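If your schedule permits, I should be very grateful for your opinion on a structural question. Kindly check, if you would, that the fold set down in the tokens agrees with what the sequence suggests. Thank you for your consideration; the sequence and its tokens are set out here:
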Amino acid sequence: MTDDRSPQWHGALESIVERVDRRGIGSLAEDEVLQLNRLYRRLTAELARTRRDAPGSPAAERLNAFAGRVHGTIYRGRRAPGEMMGRFFAETLPMRLADHLGTIGIAIGVFVLGTVFAYAFLQAHPQKAHYLVPPQIIDNAEQGFREENFDKTLDSWQQRPMYVSFYISNNVKVAFVAFAVGIGFAVPTVLILFQNGVVMGATGAIVQRNGLLPNLIGFISPHGAIELGAIFISAAAGMLLGWALIRPGRRTRKEALRRAAYDVIVLVVGAACMLVVAALLETFVAPLPVPNVVKYAIGGVNALLLCLYVAHGFMLRRLNPRPPASPLH
């Protein structure tokens, strides 16, 4: 489309347009999207001047054709909601998970640190659980995973929708808080992760002392990978907000937050959807009176699928490279 008399920026604009035509707008980094918008405005201004000064000239015709092509690329028909949703889960979300896997790994590490600390502490001091967790958690750990208490949760299938609603609201609350408090320079998010790890480690130690650890693992397995994964993703989103405030670079903190917002929203929406799936598994699968090995298998499959989903994101990102979105990456 360009010729020897065309400004150099014509070539840059054409290169971006060709990539969008081949791979979609999602292949562009945020800076490239802004550049596309800026160059398109520059092109339309040049076209207006050429039409004024040399209407009907070959230059005006070339510019008009070029502007029409760029306009079609930018403003092509909006996708149907189903197609947009499909692309979100098939491309956008897995790529953002791949982009920020390092941050998610930090969230996992903080949680595991809290779990190991609490478990080791109660192995050495089994009578001091009240130092780490409140009495109701201790009571639940000592009684809640006995076979007879599992049976009670199966008494009425009519109550299952109520359980689903409770689990969704509770899990989303935990995940949202872990995300939202990241605005406090990420410190509250780290503390929440560590605290939840402590609860997990203390529960495991108490249950093991009562010989019920297989029941605990069996109960957690069907939904654990998805639920914990969602919480780690939400926490990572909060940490991205905090990091934007800690190290905004040459930008203002407001601008740094704005630039991080898109990835953060994608991660939070993905985590919320995962929590809905986890709530369904926790309600309808976790309490079933089946051998624990069956629940272990379900959990293993879910964990494998989650890993494959992230691996899919890495493959997509190799085809659609972009600069790291965060120094934590």
